[in-house]
């Protein structure tokens, strides 16, 4: 497995697994704790808490999920990937003491490129499905806690996220359509 930083962030990583393929198909390790921890250590990053929950969603093209986060003490680190289809995945830095506070970055994850994204605690996360029947998998370092959940509008003008064309018009859950603004989030700190 190989890791590169998702710029401008030092601790959000794009992980590229080693894929073994032949005429029969392919195989790769989607998660190996020792390898993951070694990669983090090589980049000077701390080990996360253990993964305690796995989630799987299926979305049609144009479905946007996010921008979601959980507040401390239930903040979640997430290791995400797409097992079928394609999604544009993004993060927003929510850490007020960070030099990248309020900045965002995105990457395409797909069944074809087999990339994964490591998102440590302290980030909002969202994605839009670029294809019908997109299966999105994620491991989390804390259990979902409704009282700790938060969300920020996907189209907040202060964040100015440059979403791909698949978002127009975005298909949203009711709670995502009613999410608060970036200004509301900053005021809550």
UniProtKB/TrEMBL annotation:
Which major enzyme category is it?
A: isomerase
- Extract the Pfam families matched here: dTDP_sugar_isom (PF00908)
Q: Which UniProt keywords apply?
A: Isomerase
From what superkingdom does this record's organism come?
Bacteria
Its subunit composition reads:
Homodimer.
The record's similarity note reads: Belongs to the dTDP-4-dehydrorhamnose 3,5-epimerase family.
The name on file for this protein is dTDP-4-dehydrorhamnose 3,5-epimerase
Protein species of origin: Piscinibacterium candidicorallinum
Upper taxonomic lineage = Bacteria, Pseudomonadati, Pseudomonadota, Betaproteobacteria, Burkholderiales
Instruction: Point out the gene that encodes the protein.
Output: rfbC
